[in-house]
Amino acid sequence: MSFALRQADASVAPCAAVNVRSVVPATKLRPALPSTPTLTDSEFSFGAADYDRVRRLIYEHAGISLSDSKQAMVYSRLSRLLRETGHTNFQEYLKWLESGGGSGGVGVGVGVNTSIGTSSSERWQSFVNALTTNLTAFFREEHHFVELETELARRAGKPLRIWCNAASTGEEPYSIAMTMNEALGPNAAVSLLATDIDTNVLSAARRGVYNIGARGLSPERMHRHFLKGKGDNSALMRIKPELARGVEFRAHNLIHAQWNLGDPFDIVFCRNVMIYFDAPTQHGVLERMHRAMKPGGLLFVGHSESFNDAKDLFRLRGKTIYERV
Ligand SMILES: C[S@@+](CC[C@H](N)C(=O)[O-])C[C@H]1O[C@@H](n2cnc3c(N)ncnc32)[C@H](O)[C@@H]1O
What span, in angstroms and rounded, lies between the C-alpha atoms of 242 and 225? Predict the structure, then answer.
């Protein structure tokens, strides 16, 4: 893919094109199936027992709790995997998935090859990748970035460690990187780690290529922080290498008991992922998050997430912003 070594064109009309993968839930791109206990009219029969088995497996491997209403969505996402792996029904596919043993590699960087592999960890990784929902956007919940800028200015001159987990296709960590660059300049002593369980979105995030007009980005920021594609890529832009170099992308599963993430963090973004977890899973993640952060560190959470029952770990500091106790 070739990109011009010039800045993105600030005159491009915002929202001329939208990064479909990143801002539209994948489910919306596929025809909806009626939500029935058994999807017998479909290509593959998908009964209540199959759905319960899928629910148990995704809960065990990613902590994701699927409600009854998600059966058609799950069918739609997994039937693609059945076709790709040559299985003719769900029982056969799920048996094949489980026959390889545990999920050792999910969200720990094994199986980053996104093709449907035959090793056990690759099978599980593809299963998990298919069932995650990756909706995101640049500068989503903009008030967080205003607060982040203030916090960066307050801590200027001190080395800082920031972690953006559930980073999806990269819009969120790159929004943090842009804010850092604007607040502190290019040479600030800030390290930024971005993680997700889904290895497909991590690959997209590392590429750092988005549609021009992607939601949430002002023309000024496009111009300042992106390179515009040339020729066939003229509808695309790529994050500037100097900004991309400042972000380390890594696979990480929030429900794993052991987190090996290095020194404690000053600031953590954990947004719009806890909504997929039940209360005990959320609490386990908050306990590990607490251990992974410095006292007084800031935790940014999603607009519909609140952790008031974990006051011993985090106290509310502002709108959807917590302080590590
Ligand atoms: C809806 S997106 C949120 C993206 C971004 N944080 C935002 O707010 O725009 C949820 C992300 O959480 C990730 N995720 C789901 N379960 C996870 C887990 N157990 N560990 C780490 N990431 C997970 C998904 O892969 C997905 O990319």
Answer: 9
d(C-alpha 299, C-alpha 301), whole Å: 6
Question: Cα 184 vs. chain centroid, distance in angstroms?
Answer: 26
At 180-214, the pLDDT tens digits run: 999 999 988 899 999 999 999 999 999 999 999 99
Task: Judge if the beta carbon of residue 271 lies within 6 A of ligand 1.
Answer: yes
With a cut of 50, say whether residue 17 has pLDDT above it: no
Q: Is the dihedral of CA 319, 323, 324, 325 positive or negative?
A: negative
Cβ pair 228, 234 in contact under 8 A: yes
Annotation marks residue 206 as catalytic: no
Amino acid (1-letter code) at residue 167: A
234 is written with which tokens? 């003229």
Question: How far apart (Å, rounded) are the C-alpha atoms in residues 254 and 292?
Answer: 12
Q: Count how many Cα atoms sit within 13 Å of the Cα of residue 104 in the half-sphere of its side chain.
A: 8
Tell me how far apart the alpha carbons of residues 258 and 248 are, in angstroms, rounded to a whole number. 20
The answer to whether residue 35 scores a pLDDT higher than 60 is: no
Q: What is the pLDDT of residues 37-67, one digit of tens each?
A: 566 668 999 999 999 999 999 999 999 999 9
Q: Which atom of ligand 1 is nearest to the CA of 137?
A: 9
CA of 313 to the centre of ligand 1 (A): 22
Given this model, what pLDDT does residue 100 score? 76
Q: How far apart are CA 125 and CA 243, in angstroms?
A: 29
Find out whether the beta carbon of 23 lies less than 6 Å from any atom of ligand 1. no
Which pTM was predicted? 0.88
Cβ of residue 198 lying under 6 Å from some atom of ligand 1: yes
**Over the Cα atoms of the chain, what is R_g?**
20
- Residue tagged active-site, from 77, 140, 215, 221: 77
Statement: residue 13 has pLDDT above 90: no
Q: What is the pLDDT of residue 118?
A: 74
